[in-house]
Amino acid sequence: MSVIDKSEKKVLMISGVVIGLFIFSILYAKDKYQSDVPECIPFDKAYTEPRINQIDEKTFQVFSVASMWQFEPSEIYIPVGSEVDFYLSSKDVVHGFNITEKNVNMMAVYGNINKTTVRFDEPGVYKITCHEYCGVGHENMQAEVIVHQPQTK
Ligand SMILES: [Cu+2]
User: Fold this and answer.
1) Range of the domain at 138
2) How far apart are CA 47 and CA 112, in angstroms?
3) What CATH number is given to the structural domain containing 140?
4) Is 0.90 topped by the overall pTM?
């Protein structure tokens, strides 16, 4: 028969509340900022070929491949209001993947595919930068998402 000490019970309760708060704040942020919680999906070689797939008028898939010292594709043109699924992988070392003004902070890890979904509702140029030091060319590691107004016909 084990009896839990009163102070131990208290610590367990507080831990439970803190864990609950963490989970709540993640779900709250996901909803409020319409940000996608990044997920790690099973590795498949098909994800490691840099390309942009257009699913429909405003839905895209970007297969972004980080390597020393570049992101491929380096320029991504999409119309305003697009939703983009980024599938991120690395050819070599660990790289970072940060999109300015967007709630995106991922790591590119060899042998892993990380995925996030981002909506671009404002036109402009959004820089993608590497924020994990990856070698001498690190500061040149940039790409751009160019969000343009669709042409009027
Ligand atoms: Cu880097």
Assistant:
1) 39-148
2) 10
3) 2.60.40.420
4) no
